[in-house]
User: Fold this.
Amino acid sequence: MEPKEYQVRALRQVSTYLQLLYDWRLKNDKIVSDIGEDAALDFPGKAWGKMEGLYRAHSPRRDGLGRYLPCFCLKIPTGGGKTFLAVKAIDAINTNYLKKRTGLVLWVVPTTQIYSQTIKSLRDRDHPYRQHLDIASGGRTVIITGVELNREEMIKLDLHVFNKASPDWKDTLLDSHKKLEELQIKAHEYEGQTGNHIRPICLIQVERTGAAQRGQGKIHSEDVREHLIQVIGIPPEEVAIKTSEKDELRDMDDLGGLLSRDCRIRYIITKQALQEGWDCAFAYVLAVLTNPGSKTALTQLVGRILRQPCARKTIRSEPGRSSVLPKCERSSARRRGKSFFRCS
Assistant:
């Protein structure tokens, strides 16, 4: 399978960025070794700044430990060969950045149909996609399903869905709080037995976030914050808002991140800011106070609470699972309940 000219250009850009990324990572490693983590460079941003012809400014990312995390996207039109470019990008990452032929690739797709088509192609050793993957891995490609991730205890399953029939978002929020308190008790027990610290976190999706959008009959982030603090009695330092306008998680990177023992945050309120490119292994409860119209968007949001702390099964029983509590409108509660799933 020979790449088209626009695909060649895209891959050339990817390879250039990855080589710059590798060079800046070496500089960063030396600085961290000589001075310490506090002096770490945003090496993905430094590499991005040396690129030409990019459509977007650099969007900094960090992992759960607060370290800078390389991230880039390829925007390709329908029928443009996204899967082909993806397997070629894996080869470029191994060659130009990782400098090795081994590693784990998590391949996420938005629909069951695309999943079936993609995995069928990747498992077929005669298919060009699989052949390019074999080149990237030195012939050691092994195809990683979601069921196998669960078998290896890397993600929080079962996923428990509690579909509230009440139209009042405050009822859903209270139930989410109660669920989080149950998990916190289990977390304390687990830490006493193993010495491993876990602080269960609840993600809360609201309908509105901007200051000008408050008071328009929609569930606003500040309304939720006030209810948590003034009615339920949550200490203010345990609540944070993450939106495009207000990012109260930004400073957490300098304090060791959400996984730090010193972090007090237990509730994170958002609208869409946490749907992609973010996850936290301490996130166990998702309170959906919106009426989601997109299955893809909801799937992405649920994905924020699936990663296991330390990539292994932690607290047995309840906190080894993740919980989703969606709010339903009274008139459609029964119908909407069918759009969610429960694994037990």
Observations:
- Residues 328-344 have pLDDT under 50 and may be disordered.
- The chain has ten helices and six strands.
- The first strand starts at residue 159 and ends at 161.
- The chain has two domains: 5-144, 154-337.
